[in-house]
Backbone:
């Protein structure tokens, strides 16, 4: 199997809810392509769902070296740290982001910093969308990351409400699969 086949299979295993298999495939890909390790945000997400929060946090720290203005990367590291060491430590060690141009990413970042509230993230997502598709995408990300934020804070009912709402806003991106897998886990 080529190295890229391991990577692609890792993504497909994750989409199928086979988290351990996903981690193994992503690990094999990195073993075969060590120069790609910093780019493996998908592996970090698989580590998170596998409950290997230390490896997840490390993967997102490494990704920061590849792309240092990605709110999602900072948030996923926060989520890993929150699960292992609590929300306060996660907030105190949030990876710095100054300029993610995607709406409502900077508002999501403000939420995780403790500077904004969920309603402010949703307001940004709903403000002046240029078209229906982009509006759907913004609302998807807002609900996904609000849900994950509530989950990290131990607010299971609010988390479930937002994750299930995110799932309704399907987008053509791996992150929608993450929301779907998460929603399936919540329904079980």
Residues:
């Amino acid at each position: 199997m080529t190295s890229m086949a391991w990577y692609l299979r890792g993504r497909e295993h994750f989409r199928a809810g086979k988290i351990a298999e996903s981690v193994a495939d992503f690990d094999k890909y990195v073993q075969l392509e060590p120069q790609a390790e910093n780019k493996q945000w998908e592996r970090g997400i698989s580590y998170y769902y596998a409950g290997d929060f230390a490896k997840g946090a490390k993967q997102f720290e490494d990704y920061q070296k590849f792309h240092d203005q990605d709110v999602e990367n900072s948030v996923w590291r926060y989520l890993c740290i929150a699960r292992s060491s609590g929300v306060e430590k996660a907030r105190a060690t949030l990876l710095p982001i100054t300029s993610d141009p995607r709406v409502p990413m900077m508002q999501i970042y403000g939420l995780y910093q403790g500077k904004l509230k969920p309603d402010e993230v949703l307001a940004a997502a709903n403000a002046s969308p240029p078209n229906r598709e982009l509006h759907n995408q913004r609302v998807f990300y807002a609900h996904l990351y609000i849900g994950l934020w509530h989950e990290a804070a131990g607010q299971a009912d609010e988390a479930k409400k937002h994750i299930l709402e995110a799932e309704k806003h399907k987008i053509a991106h791996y992150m929608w699969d993450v929301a779907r897998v998460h929603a399936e886990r919540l329904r079980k």
Observations:
- The mean pLDDT is 97.
- Residues 102-188 form one domain.
- The two ends are 34 Å apart (CA to CA).
